[in-house]
Every structure is written in C-alpha cells, then in structure tokens.
Amino acid sequence: xxxxxxxxxxxxxxxxxxxxxxxxxxxxxxxxxxxxxxxxxxxxxxxxxxxxxxxxxxxxxxxxxxxxxxxxxxxxxxxxxxxxxxxxxxxxxxxxxxxxxxxxxxxxxxxxxxxxxxxxxxxxxxxxxxxxxxxxxxxxxxxxxxxxxxxxxxxxxxxxxxxxxxxxxxxxxxxxxxxx
Length: 180
Fold this sequence. Notes:
alpha+beta
C-alpha cells in the first residue's frame, strides 16, 4: 500500500538508526545504519490506476461502510481506498466420483488492506482457527467496521494532533462499545 501511495516508489525502512554498547569502556562499540535508498518498483501510472481501483472498493464496493468516514479539520473528506478479503478455509475430502465426502473448518479470516489519505495505510485482519472456527461467520466487513470505529482516533493524529488525543478517543470508543 505504501508503494502505491508513493507513486511506485518503495521508501526506505529504518527502525533503529544507531546502537551503542559498553559506553566509556575498552569494549565500546557503535553501529550506525547506512542511509537507506528509495527504489522505484512500480510504474507511476500503474500506482495511480491502483489507487483509483482501491478507492472504488470504498466508494462502490465491499468497503462502502467507511465511505465518507474520514474528514480533515476543515471538514473536507479524506480519500480512502482498500481491498477486502474473506476466507472460510476448509479441509475437504472427496469421493472417487468427485462428490464431497466431508468438510472440516480450519480457519476463518476477514481482512481489509487500506490507505487513508496520503499518510496512513495498514492491514486489519480478524482471524479464528481451530475447533471453534465453525462458530464464527464474520467476513471482511468486520475489519472494515473496526476501522470505522477507530476513525476519531485516526483523525485526531491525521494532521499532527498529539497521540494522547487518539488514545483518549480509542478509550472512549472501547468504553462505549463495551457498555452496549
């Protein structure tokens, strides 16, 4: 999703920039990361086309629940796009003639891969495995609904608000949904 938002350019990933061990001893060791480089991995026209397709999933497809959910401080809508996917994963056995002999649920998944504006992207997945899988019937609508519940927290940090505000919104959402 990040590559699509960056017009086909993979941005560098760098979590740790410097490590220092045994300071002020004969064993002192410093490690510094090399400067990461960007890399074009997709034609910009393809990235632009993909953004349009992903936006249509929210505007007219399986993720319409989050359509018009996000707005900036001025009230202008923030673009959102994504791709949904659901899986009812079963182990099936078939008879010699091709008929289904048995089916055992192995896992269930519901996923939404998304972008919000040009700053945020992510993946939300609901997953159940094991013997109780048949007791669940969710689809990708579940992670889409969760993203909608998180909208106030995301909007709070979208334009640089302190992260503490978003934590407050998440706590409010959690207390509201648990009391219903």
